[in-house]
Amino acid sequence: MYSYPPEFLLHPVPVMACYGLSGGADEVPSDDHSPSQRDTRSSLVEAISTILNNKNDYSFHEATRNPIQIPPFRVIMVSKEYTLSTRPPPLAPNLPPPHSNLSPLSPDSPLFPDGLMTPLWIKKHQYLPSVVVGFYDLWDWHTEPGTKRETGPLASQVMIDPVERENDTNLASEINSRRKYFQDKGIKFVAVILLKQRYADASIEERLSLIRKQCGLDTKNSFFTVAPCPTSELQEFINNLQKAMYEPALQYYSNRIKKLRKKKSKLPSPATLPRSAIDLSSNNDVQPLSVPGWILRYDYKTAFFQECKQEIDGALRSYEAAYNTLVDMLAPTSASFGHNTLVMHGKRWTEARILVDCISIKICRFHLHLNDPTAALAQLNGHLHMFQSHSNEWSMGEQTFEYWAWLSKQYRNFADIIDAAIHAGFKIPLPTAYLGNSTGPASPLVGGLAPNTGCNPGAILQHPGFYYHLAAMCCAERRRRFLEMERDTSQLSPEMAALLNNEKQVDHSSLTIELLTKSYEQFKRHRSGRMTLYLAAEIAGTYYETGKFEMAIKFFERIGKTYRKEKWHMVLTSILRWSLRCAKELGSWERAIECLVELMAEDLPMTNNKRADVQKELFDLISVHPAANAEKHPPLVIHMDQINAFVKCHVQFRKQRNFLGAPVDYQITLKTEKTSPSEFRFNALRIMFSNPQYNVILQDVGEETKLSPIELIDFSNTLEKMQEGDYADWQTSKADLRVIKGQTKVLQGSVLAKDCGELKIVGVCLDIITDNWHVELNYLVDKMAEEQSTTRRKWLESIEDKPKFKLLDGRGELLSINVLQKPPSVDLKFEHSAPALLDELFKLDVTMTSSEVEPVEAILIAEIKNAEGFVEEDYVVFDTKKDSGGAIQEETVGRIEPGQSVTIPVYLHGGSVSGSRIISLIVRYTIIGEESTQPVEKADSLRVPFITPFDTNFELCAQSEKLQVSMSPDLEKSERWLLSTSIKCCSAWDLDVNSIELEETESFEHEFTSLSLISRMDDIDQHEWKTGHAFNAIYLFKLFTTDLTEIQPSIPAGRIKITWKRLGNNEKYYQTYIQLPSIQFQQSNLVVVADAPSEIYLGEPFTLAYTVYNPTEFIADYTATIELSEAFVFSGYKQLKGRVLPLSRVRYQYNCYPLLAGKVRLPRLKVLATQQQTGEREVPIEMAGSGSIVALDNNLQIKHSSPLEAQPILVFVNAKRQF
Predict the structure, then answer these.
(1) What's the angle, vertex CA 1134, arms to CA 1129 and CA 1138, rounded to 5?
(2) Is 133 exposed, middle or buried (CB count within 10 Å of its CB: 0-12, 13-18, 19+)?
(3) Which of 27, 246, 701, 1121 is the most buried (most CB within 10 A)?
(4) What are phi and psi of 339, to 5 degrees?
(5) What is the mean pLDDT of residues 455-468?
(6) ω into residue 935 within 30 of 0, thus cis?
(7) Which residue, among 309, 351, 245, 419, has the nearest Cα to 11 in the 3D structure?
(8) What does the H/E/C string look like for 676-723?
(9) How wide is the angle at C-alpha 1130 spanned by C-alphas 1126 and 1132, nearest 5°?
(10) pLDDT for 532-581, tens place per residue?
(11) Separation CA 372–CA 317 (nearest Å)
C-alpha cells in the first residue's frame, strides 16, 4: 500500500496444496471408447482446477465475512512428489540443528544478526500448506492396452479381479505413504479419487472401501470421490471439501502458535535485564538481536498465524503487543530493557519504521472490523503522535519534506482502510453516537461542560474524504518544504542530498490533485456540496501553483457559478481574484476584463480603495497595457445578467397600448450603489428594439460638470439618423454617460411607431471603447424584469426643474407594447420594366384603387432606399423635367371617388451604387366630409434592381527612386504614378457613348504637395458599345513635394465623365462619373532600402547595401542584426546599433560571396527601431527601384496589393561565368 512491502499488509488465509491435477496416468487407447473417457477425465480435472484457482487472493473483508460457511483458502498446485523443506542435520551429534535461513541466528540470513522481521518470512508461509489434497485415478481396464476383463458365465460371480486388486493395493500403499509423511509434519492429508463414471457399480464401491481401509483414511473427513458432474454440483463438492479441511487447517496454525508461545516463554523477562547504554563509538559493531527483539518476532508471528485462523481479536492483541515493543525500540532518547537503541537512519532502523507503520495499519483495520471506530482513530492519532514526538531527534521534523510525506501516506492509508470497510458494509457512526461514550476530558473549547454533555471532535471518525483531504494538504506542504530545501542546498549532508535527488523525481502536484480528487468524490458521495466546491477550489489552486493555469481557471469558473448563484460574495471575490491571476498568466485578456468588471460590483465585499484599484486596472488593461493592446481585439460581450453588475439597468414603457404615428415614451434607468466606483464613464449606450429601425445609440458628450444623485436626461427631440458606420440607420444623440456611486440616472426617449404589432426593448448595452478594445456590457432585460416583478412601476418626471418619481399602474417592468392602426381601404398596383440602369430616370406606374364608401383626398409618398445602405444620389421625382429630387417625395393625387383608379408615374433615379432599391410607397388619405379625422395610411413596397452601366477597374503602379548618398537632410521628393483604368459595358442594352473626359480636381490646393498630369490616352473611336465592350484609359501622374516634414495629403486624381444614353432612344444623354483613386506618397515611415546589383554570378563577390531611410521628423534609434543565408557568405557588421536623424539616411555595405545559383534569399538586415511616437517595431525592407502596386475595383476597394512586409529579399544568382 503505497511503497510498503505488500507482504506486511496482506491478509493471510490458510494454504491448501493440491497435487494430481496437472496430468493423469499413462493412458493408451485400447478400444473405441478410450478417447472419450480420456476427454472426460481431462474435463473433470480442468473444471476442478478452475474452481480451486478461481479465488486465490482474498481481501481482509472477504476473508472475514463468513469463514465457516465459505472457508477462504489459498490454493497452490504442487507436484505429486511434493515434500516440505527440511533443515540440514547437525554438524556434529552434540550440536543443535542449524537455524532457519531466515533466522537472525543464521549467518546467511538477511536478518543476521539483529534484524527484526523480513517480508520473505511471510512470503515463505504463503507457500507452506496447512492441508494437502491428493487427487488419484482409480485404475480400470481401459488404462492397460491390449487387455480386457474376463467375461462369461463364471466371470459375473467375480467381484474384484486380481489385476484390479493388485493396482488398488499399490494405490492404497501410495496414499498411505503420503498420509504418514504429512501427518508426521502435523499437516492434514486428504485423498480424492477421480472416477470415470458418475454412477459406480457394486464392484467400484467395494474397491473404494478396500482402498480406504488399507490407507487408513476416514470416509467423512479424509477420503472423497468425485465423478464427472455439472459445474454447480462440482462447486458444491469443492465447498464441502474445503469445509472439511478448514478445522484441521486452523488446528495446524494453532499448533504453530503454541510452539511460538513455548519459545517466547523461555525468554527472560525484559524487566530483569539491565538497560544497555548507547555507545556511539561502537555503532559499527553489529550486536545480536536482543530479548525484546525476539519477543517482537514471536508476537508478530503469533499475530500472523492468528490472522490465518481469522481470529481477529487475538491477532489484534498480538499486533498491539508487537507495536508497543517496536515503539519502545524506536524511541531515540532511552533504550528499552535489554535492547540497544536502533541507529537512526540505519538499515534496521528503516526496517523497524516500515514495520511499525504496517502494524499500525493492520490495527486500524481490525478495530474497524470489530466496529470500534474510536479505537481505530485513537490508534491513528497515537501513531502520528509517536512519530511527531520522535521526528526532531530523527532529523525528520516538521521542517523537512520527509515528515510531511510520511504524514500524507498515513492519512491516505487510513482513508483507504475506511473506504474498503464502507464497501464491506461498515457505517460511519453519527456524531451523536459518541456523546455517551466520551471518556476523555472535556475539550477546552467548550468551557466547563459536564463530561457527558459533549464529545471531542478529534475523536469522531469521519468518512474517507476527510482523510484524503488531510493527505492532500500534507502533500502540498511536502512540496513547499521540498522547494525550501531545494533553494538552500549549501549545508545538506550527503544523505539529505541523496533524498533530495530522489524527491525531485516525485510529481507532487499530481499526487496532491489525485488526493483532492479522491476527497472530492467522497464528499460528493456523502452529499457535502459546500465541501466539494472547496475541494474544487483547492484543486484549482494546486493547478495554479504548478503553472497549469488553463486547468486552474476552468475549475475556478465552474465553482464560481455556484457561489455566484447562491450569493457567497466573499468566496466569489477570492475566486475572481485567482481567476484574474490565471487569465493574466495565460494572456487571456478577455477573461481578465470579465473578472475586473465583476469585481467592481457593490455586492462583492472590498474597500473603496481596492475597488478604485480594480477600476484603474481595468482601464489600464484596455488602454495602455502593452501585451493586451498589441492588436485590435474583436468586440468583447459580457452578459451582465450572468454576473454581479456594478451598474443596475431597468427598462420601462409608459403606456401598454399605443397607436400608429403617436410617440411611444420609454425610460432607461442606470442605478449604482454607495459602494460602486466613484465615477465611471461609458463611451456609448445602445438600446435594441425588436424592430431594428428604432435602435438608438447614445454617445457620451465628454462633459465634466457636477452630477446629481438623481438625473433625468430627455433625448427624445434630439435624435438623428446615422448615415454611415457600423450603426448606420440607427437613431443617435448625445448624452452625459457618466455614473457615480449612489446615483440614479434616467434616460428618456421616444419612438414614433411606423409599424403595427408588438414593440419590445430586447436589450441595453453599455460600451467601453478604446483604440484596441470594445467592451460591451450587455443587459438582457427579460431576465432582469423577472427580479423586479413585485415592485410598483415608476416614471421619473421633471416637476419645477426637480426630478420626481410618479407611480404607474402595474408592477414590475413593462418591456413591450402593442401598436394599433385603423386598416386602410386603398389598393396599390405597380407596373414597371426592370432592371433599371444607374444614373437614368426609371419609370414606375402606381395605380391606386379606392375601396372606401366615401371620396378621399389622397397624397402619394414615394421613397427610394438602398437595401444595403444609404445612397446619397438616389432620389425620386414625379416630373422628368426636374433635374434632381429627394429620397422621399410626395405628390398630391387629389380626389378619388369610391371604386375609382388613379395612375401616377414615379421616376426613380439610382446613383453610384448598384443593387436592389426598396421603393416604399405610402398613400395617405383622409375621408372627405369627416371632421378631425386622423389620416390613414396604406403602405406597400417593391424591390427594383439597379445595375451599373459601366464596370471599372483601376491599377496604380508606383516607382520609387534609388536613394543617393547624402549627408544632409533632403526635404524634396517626387514619385511617378501610372493609373490604368479599364471601363467595361455592363448594360443589358446597347449604349450610345458620346464622350469620355477626365475632369481634374481644381479645388484641391496644397502649399507643398502637387499632382500633375504628364500624359493621357482616353480618346474613343467607337461610340456604339455592346454588352461586354471594354475600353482602357491610361494616365501618367507626377507627385511632387517640397517639404517632407509636412503631413502629406492624399491627392485626388479627379474623375472620368462618361456621357451616354440607350441606343436608339431620343431621350437626353445621361452623365456617369467615375471617381479616380487618390494618390499619396508610398513612403511615410522608417524604411530599409536594399540595393544589390542587377546581375549576380555564382562565385563572384558583390556589394550589398542597406540604407536606413528616415523620412519622418523624429529621431529613430535602432538596433540591427543581419540574418544568415545559406546561399551567401558575407563580411560586415552582424549587429548594429545607431541613430538616424530626421529626413536622413544611414548606409551599410556588406561584401557577399554567392554559394548557390538560382532564386535565393539575401542576408536580411533585421532592424528594430524606436521612435518618439511609437514603440519598438521591426522596420520593413524594400528593394531599390521597386514600389507598391495596388489594384482597385469599381468602388475603389483594394482587390490586392504588394505592401512592404517583413519577408526575405530574393535575388537571382546566375550560373558561374567562364572566362
Answers:
(1) 145
(2) buried
(3) 246
(4) -145, 130
(5) 84
(6) no
(7) 309
(8) CCCEEECCEEEEEECCHHHCEEEEECCCCCCCCCEEEEECHHHCEECC
(9) 135
(10) 888 888 899 888 888 889 999 998 988 888 888 888 888 899 999 999 99
(11) 14
Sign of CA dihedral 579, 581, 587, 590: positive
Give the separation between CA 1151 and CA 1128, rounded to whole angstroms. Answer: 10
On the CB side of 352, how many CA atoms lie within 13 Å of its CA?
Answer: 28
Could you tell me if 526 and 464 are in contact, meaning their C-beta atoms sit under 8 angstroms apart?
A: no
Alpha carbon distance 780, 790 (integer Å): 19
Cell output for 51: 474452481
Please tell me whether residue 742 adopts helix, strand or coil conformation.
coil
Residues 211-248 pLDDT 10s: 988 988 887 789 999 999 999 999 999 999 999 999 99
**d(C-alpha 757, C-alpha 818), whole Å:** 6
The pLDDT score that the predictor gives to residue 966 is 66
**Placement of cell 535565393 in the chain:** 1160
Beta bridge partners, 139, equal none
From the number of C-beta atoms within 10 Å of its C-beta (0-12, 13-18, 19+), residue 36 rates as exposed
Provide the 3-class DSSP secondary structure of residue 3: coil
| CA 834 to each of CA 861, 880, 946: distance values in angstroms, whole numbers, following the listed order | 21, 18, 8
Whole-number Å distance between alpha carbons of 761 and 375: 68
CA 75 to chain centre: 49
134 beta partners: 19, 191
Q: 280: pLDDT confidence band, cut at 50, 70 and 90? A: very low
How far apart, in whole angstroms, are the C-alpha atoms of residue 509 and residue 1131? 52
CA 1101 from centroid of its chain's CA atoms: 57
- The 10s digit of each residue's pLDDT in 1008-1066 is 888 888 888 888 888 888 888 988 888 888 888 888 777 888 888 888 999 988 887 77
Alpha carbons 1197 and 526: distance in angstroms, whole number: 66
What b/e string do you get for 956-986 counting C-beta neighbours within 10 Å, with b at 16 or more? bebebeebeeeeeeeeebebbbbbbbebbbb
What cell numbers appear for 985 in the block? 459595358
Average pLDDT over the chain reads 85
CA 640 – CA 779 distance, rounded (Å) = 5
835 upstream amide cis, omega within 30 of 0 = yes
Under 8 Å between Cβ of 188 and 129: no
The model's confidence at residue 1104, banded by pLDDT at 50, 70 and 90, is very high
